[in-house]
C-alpha cells in the first residue's frame, strides 16, 4: 500500500473517531431545554432555545460528515476508494488530501455544480 494512501486511510479512521466524540458533545448541547420559568426571564429562555436549535443544526452537520466518512470507509473496503463515483477515473491525490471523503473528481464535481441551462 502506498504511503499516501495509507495516510488517507488513517485520516478517515481518525476523523471518524473525532466525529463520534463531537456527536456525543452535540447531543448533550442539543438536549431539551428545561428552564425554571419563575426564575429565568423570557429573553434567557429564548436564548436557550436558540442555542439548542444551533446545537441541533451542528449535530446534523456532524452526522452528515459521519455518513460521508463511513461511505469512504466502505469504498476503501471494496477497493473503490479514490475513484470518481461518476466517471470512475482516479481522483487527484491533492483533492483527496483536502477531503478524504470526496466522491467526485474535479471535472465531474464542476459539472454537478453548474446549473442546468437548458430544460
Task: Summarize the entry for a quick read.
It contains 4 helices and no strands. It has 119 residues and is an all-alpha fold.
What does this structure look like?
The protein is an all-alpha fold and 119 residues long. The chain has one domain (3-113): Up-down Bundle (Four Helix Bundle (Hemerythrin (Met), subunit A)), CATH 1.20.120. It contains 4 helices and no strands. The radius of gyration is 20 Å and the shape is elongated. The N and C termini lie far apart (46 Å).
Low-confidence stretches: none
| C-alpha-based Rg, rounded | 20 Å
Estimate the helix proportion, in percent. 55-70%
Proportion of strand residues:
under 5%
Morphology = elongated
CATH topology call: Four Helix Bundle (Hemerythrin (Met), subunit A)
How does the SSE layout of this entry go?
Blueprint: H1 3-29, H2 42-77, H3 93-98, H4 106-113
Helix pairs in contact: 1-2
Key words describing this protein structure:
single chain, 119 residues, elongated
